[in-house]
Amino acid sequence: MPFSIQPGPIKGLFLIQPKVFGDSRGYFMETWSQKVFEEEGLFANFVQDNQSKSVKGVLRGLHFQRQYPQGKLVRAIQGEVFDVAVDLRQGSLSFGKWYGVILSDKLQNQFYVPPGFAHGFFVLSDEAVFAYKCTDFYHPEDEDGIRWDDPTIGIEWPEIGIKPLLSAKDVVLPEFDPMHMYYDSKRNPV
Predict the structure, then answer these.
(1) CA nearest 130: which of 120, 145, 138?
(2) Predicted model pTM
């Protein structure tokens, strides 16, 4: 089996460890296989690949799309990030709960975040190249977000000795409101 795929602590999240074949020349690994993922209960139809490069302390998120929610298979191609998913599925037992995992080029691990979650990451290394496959296209008019430091959600971001670097857009994101409908899981079942 080219992967170890384990369900995460919140329903819908998956922790993925590809099998790495390496020698003195370098390494090879599969990063996605529709057949293997579906055998392990992870069903996702990816339509877009994205990649970003960020310096230490950059925090991107917490982002989501309302009408066109995206599932994301994420990994750090270079460097190390703390990756976070927040459950926004109305009626879910874990609504408003978060889970975070360190992704790095050394571990070669991946994280699947399904539709209905807000997503963000914090760069822990001097720089990081972050890649992700998406289950829907990016719709800028549909994008929304929640503050990275929302007290109700209470994400425990790693301490790296510098204040997080945020985009102008992310600085003004609203706080989480448990009474707000972020994502209608009846309209878009996970």
Answers:
(1) 120
(2) 0.94
